[in-house]
Design brief:
single chain, 275 residues, mainly beta, 25-stranded mixed beta sheet, 25 strands, 0% helix, elongated
């Protein structure tokens, strides 16, 4: 087992053992944070702090493991415990917390929290994220992202390629230059996009009562189809005449029209404006 002693700030070692490069790991921590770090070693090392009265477990084989803390069956609340997991980079994880934050670097898989925030960075093969009320921050290089939050805010950055992201009332912000296919939505939270879609990109923005704000680079190239049932549409590119326009829809071609972008709301405002 490699470099176990170099992460002493993460707490004492709770368990360490050999693991295959494609480890499948399930983790549960009801009342504390979980941090996961992908590394090049063929081992898993778990560090952390276990509160008196709580019991840490790890069981399974080299390719499939389960670890964490079970919820009390007698109705008692779990005391806060924190864990840091070092595991092979090609592992796939399923991580769940109730109130604790989840942080992951160079790890792929499924991440869920009831009220905790979720922050994912590094490289991954796939990312699926859901938090009912916590904030979500994705700064990851990956082919595919599926992310949901309710009342929390979400930020999508890094270099994902295919993104499906939405909130219910939280603000959704997208600031990534690499997205080729994007589906972004909210019910009442504002949706902000800043940048320039790549050539051939297909974006779909939808909202019910929140605003959709598209802040575009001056060099942007795309066809933008904007529509709202009762909301206002504001075209900030005053020097560009729309291809088509009605009281509740505008179609604008910018540059050579390389990307296809649709934005729809029921009663929210849609703004198209240059940086």
């Amino acid at each position: 087992l490699a470099t176990i002693g170099s992460q002493s700030a993460d707490g004492p070692v709770l368990r360490a053992r050999h693991a295959t490069s494609r480890l499948s790991l399930k983790t549960m921590n009801p009342a504390g944070p979980v941090r996961l770090v992908g590394w090049e070693n063929d081992s898993i090392v778990v560090r952390g702090h276990v509160t008196k009265g709580e019991k840490f477990y790890l069981y399974g084989n080299d390719s499939s493991m389960k670890l964490g803390f079970d919820e009390h069956v007698d109705g008692r609340r779990n005391a806060p415990c924190d864990i840091v997991i070092y595991l092979p980079k090609d592992s796939k994880v399923a991580v769940k917390t109730v109130t604790g934050d989840i942080t992951a670097t160079d790890v792929s898989g499924w991440f869920y929290s009831v009220s905790g925030g979720i922050r994912i960075g590094g490289s991954a093969s796939t990312i699926e994220v859901q938090s009912m009320s916590g904030n979500v921050d994705l700064n990851v290089v990956t082919p595919w992202v599926h992310a949901r939050t309710g009342d929390g805010n979400m930020l999508v950055r890094g270099e994902p390629q295919d993104v499906d992201a939405s909130t219910i009332s939280g603000t959704l912000s997208i600031a990534s230059p690499s997205i080729v296919r994007g589906q972004f939505g909210s019910v009442s939270g504002d949706v902000h996009y800043a940048g320039s879609p790549v050539a051939g990109a297909i974006f779909d923005f939808s909202n019910h009562s929140g605003a959709i704000d598209l802040l575009l680079a001056k060099s942007v190239s795309g066809v933008f189809a904007l529509s709202s049932i009762v909301g206002a549409i504001e075209n900030g590119f005053s020097g560009v005449r729309p291809i088509a326009s009605t009281p509740h829809s505008v179609r604008v071609s910018l540059g050579r029209g390389g990307a296809q972008v649709a934005a729809r709301t029921f009663k929210g405002t849609i703004r198209l404006r240059p940086q």
